[in-house]
Design goal:
The protein contains 21 helices and 10 strands. By secondary structure, the protein is α/β, with parallel strands linked by helices. Among the domains are: 122 residues, no CATH class; 50 residues, no CATH class. The strands form 4 sheets. A 4-stranded mixed β-sheet has the order 1-4-3-2, covered by helices on one side. The protein has a two-stranded antiparallel ribbon with strand order 5-6. It has a two-stranded antiparallel ribbon with strand order 7-8. A hairpin with a 5-residue loop joins strand 3 and strand 4.
């Protein structure tokens, strides 16, 4: 059986390349990481509280090294305390699920030996997700979120005891013990998975979402095809999202909260730990959606019209409106106009500098910015094809503004 297991996890049979390398050390993991960096180069990021270190090699690959340890949870839902060093078998027994309590030796003395104190190999063959002790979810309720995520990703089923413990944890509101920051991290992991909608759906049907917050008691759609349409939009706008520092998982989260009551949305976002500024953009996108749709869900607008309307709203608010609109029929013009504005028209570029306009006779002051703005409108509308046309338009605008009485 062990030989078959080794064959199963060989690189030829893995679905993905392995970039996540974790090494448990019976001894000082930080010292080992520093020795690796000294001999092979790279940098070390240490965590003295948990006796762990990340060695980042010069090639960019990272290896996590962890001291085999005993730990306990003095306060359920909080991070554990380290009690001291342990042997590898003891360290594996403190893990969350059996398939994560499995080690393969890289020591020269017993290289390739499988350490399996919990029967993980059998669970992997049986595609079973199993916690290691009855207090597992109580001590660390984030394991309930991970259980759903792993079960969908791996297509594993819960064993009977784990299913009962998960139900008990939800009924007894174990999530109340978690800080918003820990909830946010787990949601980020869930919504960064390839099968994020399946994970979200499993979380909804198991009442896990409602246990996080009672207002999150439904999803905006039952159709995975709706999620695929959103995902296509995200892939098409990856550069824009990176430019505006909006992570993809947060777009999926905003979309998934579409059926939460508007009055409850700020409280839900606080509970799940979304950063205040990003949460404000999500709330504003909900509040302003109907208004922006009424103004922008039309084809054939001139670029200057799109720019002048969209400039009234923050960029991130517009981004969330655009992606949330995938849930609303017949809103393609709205998305097209918003994305066009964000990608092409905003921020405004100066067609002529302030110094150039002043040299043409425009006095220094607020009129400079106004003329630059109006020149930009004409530029994006295609009315200024060359320098000659630009200079002519600038002089006309200056003459027009200077002929008006100053109030």
């Amino acid at each position: 059986m062990i030989r078959a297991f080794v064959d199963q996890i060989s690189t030829d049979n893995l679905q993905h390349f392995v970039f996540d390398i974790d090494i448990a050390v019976e001894g000082d993991a930080i010292a080992l990481a520093e020795a690796l960096a000294e001999e092979h180069g790279g940098a070390v990021i240490r965590n003295d509280r948990f006796h762990t270190a990340k060695w980042i090699g010069d090639s960019g690959y990272a290896v996590d090294l962890t001291m085999c340890r005993h730990e306990h949870y003095p306060i359920p839902g909080k991070l554990p305390e380290v009690l001291g060093q342990a042997e590898i078998y003891e360290d594996l027994l403190r893990r969350d699920f059996s398939f994560n309590a499995l080690g393969i030796s890289v020591s020269k003395d017993d290289f390739g030996t499988i350490y399996d104190p919990t029967g993980a190999v059998g669970d992997i063959f049986g595609k079973t997700l199993r916690v290691l002790h009855p207090q597992s979810f109580f001590e660390d309720p984030t394991r309930m979120l991970r259980a759903i995520r792993y079960s969908v990703r791996l297509n594993y089923r819960f064993d009977e005891e784990t299913a009962l413990l998960l139900t008990q944890g939800l009924e007894e509101s174990y999530f109340d013990q978690l800080s918003p920051e820990r909830v946010r991290y787990e949601l980020e992991c869930m919504l960064s998975e390839d099968f994020w909608f399946g994970i979200l759906w499993a979380s909804y049907t198991s009442n896990l979402l409602a246990s996080l917050h009672p207002e999150w008691n439904q999803l905006p759609t039952m159709s995975g095809s709706d999620a695929e349409v959103l995902e296509l939009g995200i892939r098409n706008q990856e550069e824009l999202l990176e430019q505006d520092l909006v992570p993809q998982w947060l777009v999926r989260l905003s979309w998934s909260l579409a059926n939460v009551r508007a009055a409850a949305l700020p409280d839900v976002l606080r509970r799940i730990g979304v950063h205040a500024r990003l949460a404000q953009s999500i709330v504003e996108a909900r509040d302003k959606f109907d208004e922006v749709e009424a103004r922008m869900n039309h084809a054939g607008f001139k670029p200057s019209r799109i720019y002048r309307v969209c400039q009234e709203y923050p960029r991130k608010t517009l981004l969330f409106i655009a992606f949330n609109s995938y849930l609303i029929k017949d809103t393609e013009p709205l998305r097209t106009n918003i994305i066009k504005h964000l990608r092409e028209f905003s921020p405004r570029r100066s067609v002529l500098s302030g110094e150039q306009l002043i040299s043409m006779g425009l006095p220094a002051g607020p009129l400079v910015g106004k003329v630059q703005e109006e020149l930009w409108w004409r530029k994006i509308d295609g009315e200024l094809p060359d320098d000659k046309a630009t200079e002519k338009a600038a002089r006309q605008l200056i003459e027009c503004h200077l002929s008006r009485p100053i109030i």
